Amino acid sequence: MTAAAERPPGWRAPDLTLPDTHGTPVELASLRGGPCLVVFVPFAFSGTCTAELDALEADLPDLREAGVRVLGVSCDPVFALRAWREQRGYTFDLLSDFWPHGAAAHAFGVLDERTGAARRGSFLLDADGLVVWSVVNPAGVARDPGAHRAALRALRPSGSGSAHG
């Protein structure tokens, strides 16, 4: 089977439940009805991941104007993500994929089995939970800071799209 990260647009995102920074379960399926951006990062507090999420925070006005819910996901434990969110002032949800370790990253096809961390993958889901845009970068390569804003072009008024990054 082809890894989710290598699939063309239009595949259904996995129905996952992950805890936020306070341990509250967030169900991806419950967010249907509006677009959602799922952003995987390898490690909390690392320089590249912090720079990427800082850029994402700066893009939030454009994303929220388009009605996009943003979820950052890492294999780090809830407590590390809470400290990172509080330190950086992120206003979007950070979700822990700690246990079962990397299950969400694996389901999206971005788990690096060698390191046990997620690769840098971003997935824009439409209101029906279909992936309309995605980008996955190799280890050590940061995402383009404008990629998430540019991904908004994949959303169409009907909630479907066909762009792939």
Automatic annotation (TrEMBL):
InterPro entries: AhpC/TSA, Peroxiredoxin_AhpC-typ, Thioredoxin-like_sf, Thioredoxin_domain, Tpx_Peroxidase_subfamily. Keywords: Antioxidant, Oxidoreductase, Peroxidase, Redox-active center. Pfam families: AhpC-TSA. This is Thioredoxin domain-containing protein. PANTHER family: THIOL PEROXIDASE. It comes from the Bacteria. GO terms for molecular function: peroxidase activity. Residues 7-157 form the Thioredoxin domain. SUPFAM superfamilies: Thioredoxin-like. The active site is at C49. The keyword Oxidoreductase applies.
